[in-house]
């Protein structure tokens, strides 16, 4: 028979599990309620005094007919675009990004919540709680930011034209309740998993965190604050209203790109970069292996220096070299053709030659630089592998195939992932210096970088178009690297970047 103490402990454990299940149900309901309240037909901002507000905005009757009095945080930008109130655009745009982040986090937390039975009870829920807490924080921030937007708008127009909707009263309360319950459950989970939170980690290693502050400040100033310029892609910029008050135009800049040259630019940029990445890495590995097997030390260093030297050649100097080689009247190649009674070739008016020319000079200039990375990896391979292979009778080609190449695989994959992240970022200096503004060659040489440069310098007020093209480049590269990393992680998790 069980003792009274054991029975009491079992009852206490059962009560604790029942209490945790109730709290988990409440968390699931909080996530559902927040997601529902973010739907477009729930009011976050409503126009309280339509006549006075529209009069203060100076709107015409034809525009007023298109406006509705109730707005969700997901649809308020349509009001800004229709009413042409650019002064509200940047703030509304930031709130939309925060709202989308809150929706994504809450949805991810709810999916993990539904899958909780796939793991042992009391284990594996820390990530769910962490995701849920972030979702609640972003939801609360969206509500507070919307209240701030209403206060700012009313102050700007000098009247109480905007008022909070029902969602602004419900979302903060639900977010705070969900966050508090999640922290309680997380505390119990950490005890079971024998893990400590960020505060305890900071208390133990505060000196290491202190060393991270300069790095954080650097990236904040140089990488994150400039990202506010993304808003240019959604505006019709003018110097009178500056960035934060220029008219918000939604996706019109992207529509212009789609209607004009985006498919052609995408094709050119991707094809060039694929050739650069694939052929470049293969040649870099090839030359690194060749140099690593050169026995004569002086010849080895000389060969490495000669292959690496073109990397230091300026693109301006490269332009001069290419011009003197391919110019129609006095170019080296045409002079040679003339000397053997052959017809001259007009390279600068024949687009079909330039993919080969650009690829050739890119490889000539960059193969040596990439080769150094692979050569350093080969140098780090233990000689014991090669000695053992020689004892087993392996020749030099078998050593390369079964030792060198497999051990270069991690380096190759990491460099490939880094390169794919910039697959939509062309070699601007290379293309611009070799081709310049020669419109005859644009059909085969125009890439996103040269296009953005051209429209932002020749049309100073087209900053929105240039930023839209750049944003498309970044998003495309981000998606490519995430998908590639996912595929690599499924096959070889140790080689993945994240």
Give me some keywords for this one.
3-stranded antiparallel β-sheet; 2 domains; 498 residues; 22 helices
Description:
It is a single chain. The protein has 498 residues and is mainly α. It has 2 domains: 16-195, no CATH class; 261-495, MetI-like (MetI-like fold). Helices cover 71% and strands 2% of the residues. It contains 22 helices and 3 strands. It has helices at 4-37, 50-57, 61-64, 76-83, 89-114, 126-157, 167-193, 198-204, 206-224, 242-245, 252-259, 262-292, 297-308, 315-326, 332-339, 354-379, 383-391, 396-421, 428-435, 442-445, 448-458, 463-491, and strands at 45-47, 70-71, 162-164. Strands 2-1-3 form a 3-stranded antiparallel beta sheet. Helix 1 packs antiparallel against helix 7 (167-193). It is flat and about 85 Å long. The chain starts with a helix and ends in a 7-residue tail after the last helix. The relative contact order is 0.08. Mean pLDDT is 85; it is low at 5-13 and 118-123.
Fraction of residues in helices?
over 70%
Q: Spell the H/E element sequence.
A: HEHHEHHHEHHHHHHHHHHHHHHHH
- Portion of residues in beta strands equals under 5%
Strand count: 3
Superfamily (CATH H level) name of the largest domain: MetI-like
End-to-end distance:
53 Å
What is the average of the pLDDT values? 85
Shape: flat
Order the strands across the largest sheet as they lie in space: 2-1-3
Architecture of the largest domain in CATH? Orthogonal Bundle
What is the CA-based Rg, rounded? 31 Å
SSE topology:
Blueprint lengths: L3 H34 L7 E3 L2 H8 L3 H4 L5 E2 L4 H8 L5 H26 L11 H32 L4 E3 L2 H27 L4 H7 L1 H19 L17 H4 L6 H8 L2 H31 L4 H12 L6 H12 L5 H8 L14 H26 L3 H9 L4 H26 L6 H8 L6 H4 L2 H11 L4 H29 L7
Helix pairs in contact: 1-5, 1-7, 4-5, 5-6, 6-7, 11-22, 12-16, 12-18, 13-16, 14-19, 16-18, 18-22, 21-22
């Amino acid at each position: 028979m069980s003792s009274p103490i054991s029975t009491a402990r079992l009852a206490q454990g059962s009560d604790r599990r029942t209490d945790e299940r109730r709290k988990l149900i409440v968390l699931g309901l909080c996530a559902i309620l927040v997601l529902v309240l973010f739907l477009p037909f729930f009011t976050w901002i409503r126009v309280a005094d339509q006549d006075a507000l529209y009069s203060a905005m100076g709107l015409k009757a034809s525009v007023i007919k298109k406006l509705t009095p109730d707005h969700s945080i997901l649809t308020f930008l349509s009001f800004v675009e229709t009413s042409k109130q650019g002064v509200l655009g940047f703030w509304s745009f930031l709130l939309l990004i925060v709202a989308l982040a809150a929706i994504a986090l809450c949805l991810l937390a709810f999916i993990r919540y539904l899958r909780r039975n796939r793991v042992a009870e009391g284990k594996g829920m820390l990530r769910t709680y962490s995701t849920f807490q972030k979702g609640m924080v972003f939801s609360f921030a969206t509500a507070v930011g919307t209240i701030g937007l209403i206060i700012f708008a009313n102050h700007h127009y000098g009247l109480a034209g905007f008022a909070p909707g029902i969602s602004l009263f419900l979302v903060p309360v639900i977010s705070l309740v969900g966050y508090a319950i999640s922290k309680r459950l997380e505390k119990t989970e950490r005890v079971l998993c024998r893990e400590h939170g960020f505060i305890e980690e900071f208390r133990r290693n505060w000196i290491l965190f202190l060393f991270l502050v300069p790095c954080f400040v650097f990236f904040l100033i140089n990488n994150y604050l400039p990202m506010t310029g993304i808003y240019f892609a959604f505006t019709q910029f003018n110097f009178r209203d500056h960035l934060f008050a220029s008219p918000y135009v939604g996706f019109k800049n992207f529509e212009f790109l789609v209607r004009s040259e985006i498919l052609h630019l995408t094709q050119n940029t991707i094809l060039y970069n694929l050739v650069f990445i694939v052929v470049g890495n293969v040649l870099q590995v090839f030359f690194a292996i060749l140099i690593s097997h050169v026995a004569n030390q002086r010849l080895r260093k000389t060969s490495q220096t000669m292959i690496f030297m073109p990397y230091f050649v300026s693109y301006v100097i490269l332009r001069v070299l290419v011009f003197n080689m391919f110019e129609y009247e006095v170019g080296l190649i045409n002079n040679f053709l003339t000397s053997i009674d052959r017809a001259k070739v007009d390279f600068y008016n024949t687009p079909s030659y330039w993919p080969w020319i650009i690829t050739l000079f890119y490889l000539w200039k960059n193969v040596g630089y990439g080769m150094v990375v692979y050569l350093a990896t080969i140098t780090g391979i233990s000689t014991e592998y090669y000695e053992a292979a020689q004892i087993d009778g392996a020749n030099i080609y078998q050593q390369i195939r079964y030792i060198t190449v497999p051990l270069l695989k991690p380096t190759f994959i990491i460099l490939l992932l880094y390169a794919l992240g910039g697959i939509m970022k062309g070699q601007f200096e290379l293309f611009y210096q070799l081709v310049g503004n020669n419109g005859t060659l644009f059909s085969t040489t125009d890439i996103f970088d040269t296009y953005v440069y051209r429209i932002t310098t020749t049309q100073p007020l087209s900053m929105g178009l240039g930023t839209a093209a750049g944003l498309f480049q970044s998003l495309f590269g981000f998606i490519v690297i995430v998908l590639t990393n996912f595929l690599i992680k499924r096959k070889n998790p140790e080689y993945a970047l994240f």
